[in-house]
Amino acid sequence: MGQSEGKLHNQVAIVTGAAQGMGATIAGRLAAEGATVVLSDINAEKVALVAESINAAAGDRALAMRTDVTKEDEVAEMVETTVEHCGTVGILVNNAGILYPTRIDYVTKAEWDEVLDVNLNGSFLCSKAVLPTMKANKFGRIVNMSSSAGRSVSTLGGVHYTAAKAGVLGLTRGMAKEVAPFGITVNAVCPGLIDTEMARENCSPEQLRAYEESFPIPRLGTPEEVAQLIVFLATDAAYITGAAIDINGGDLMM
Ligand SMILES: NC(=O)c1ccc[n+]([C@@H]2O[C@H](COP(=O)([O-])OP(=O)(O)OC[C@H]3O[C@@H](n4cnc5c(N)ncnc54)[C@H](O)[C@@H]3O)[C@@H](O)[C@H]2O)c1
Questions:
Q1: Cα 60 to averaged position of ligand 1 atoms, centre (Å)
Q2: Which of 16, 81, 140, 168 is deepest in the core (most CB within 10 A)?
Q3: Contact 48/63 with Cβ under 8 angstroms?
Q4: Are 153 and 106 in contact (CB under 8 A)?
Q5: Which domains does the chain have, with CATH numbers?
């Protein structure tokens, strides 16, 4: 792996849902700051291409892995392979997520379960799997991807998405309290509308423009801006745990 110095020099990070959108950008930013990064995603081909491009840009410090975060055995394998190849794991970004805009009358039990499974249960399973290593190291940084939806109500997603992202905030606080004695912090990031495939697939260009115009900072957020916030939370410098940090151009002021 490459040797350049950075804010996350010598750290090993796992980013879930890293085949596109924010996950891909977060993985690239962590690598640029000196971390060795395991990019995991349910889409094996796409995540391999992202890892290749990070390796080309930031030196040989990215590894791709196919993992479905809802499957406990696949999550265990993701963490075992990370420790085997990279020696340890100090940073976990629970980014994998899905959204459906379905209104409640049309949400089936299967769709409800799927949304809760990926957004909430996946974050629980991945966190639980890295904790033994982090506890042994007396150091860990877990960042969970919630949303403005978790703080208020989803703009694009249905009730299941809002419920899952609110659940992520509870998971964050509960874990943060339990693992603080081991030098592990757990925080949630709550983005508003960020310019990714997820936003573009669920919104017409006209709708997106209308949303932008309604924000105090009148534009969409960028994946890079979210990635910069996550880098800070992943450093030693962050005396922050159990927090839900809004990043939304002032759309939601709490
Ligand atoms: N884009 C936004 O406006 C926005 C705002 C707030 C929060 N978020 C959240 O940020 C995260 C990233 O969003 P994005 O816009 O980059 O989404 P995206 O749809 O562009 O990317 C999500 C990634 O997760 C992967 N994924 C889906 N199911 C998975 C599973 N079971 N196991 C592993 N990987 C899986 C997908 O293959 C994809 O690569 C999500 O948790 C999302 O809910 C997004």
A1: 25
A2: 16
A3: no
A4: no
A5: 12-247 (3.40.50.720)
191: Cβ below 6 Å to ligand 1?
Answer: yes
**The tokens of 238 are what?**
């962050």
pLDDT digits (tens, 9 = 90+) for 214-229: 999 999 999 999 999 9
Adjacent-strand bridge partners of 94:
144
Going by pLDDT thresholds of 50, 70 and 90, the confidence category of residue 123 is very high
Residues in the chain: 254
Q: Which two tokens stand for residue 119?
A: 């957004």
Lowest mean pLDDT among 15-24, 143-152, 231-240: 231-240
Q: Specify the pTM.
A: 0.98
pLDDT at 1: 45
Q: Measure 95 CA to ligand 1 centroid, in angstroms.
A: 6
Residue partners of 80: CB distance under 8 A and separation at least 6: none
Nearest CA to ligand 1 atom 40: 97
Which protein residue has the closest C-alpha to ligand 1 atom 31? 68
For ligand 1, say whether the CB of 23 is within 6 Å of any of its atoms: yes
Catalytic residues: 161
Atom of ligand 1 nearest to the CA of 23: 16
pLDDT of residue 237: 85
- Do 59 and 4 meet the contact criterion of CB atoms below 8 Å apart? yes
CA gap 1, 135 in Å, rounded: 25
From 49, 98, 146, mutation site for ligand 1 pocket: most ligand atoms within 8 A of C-beta: 98
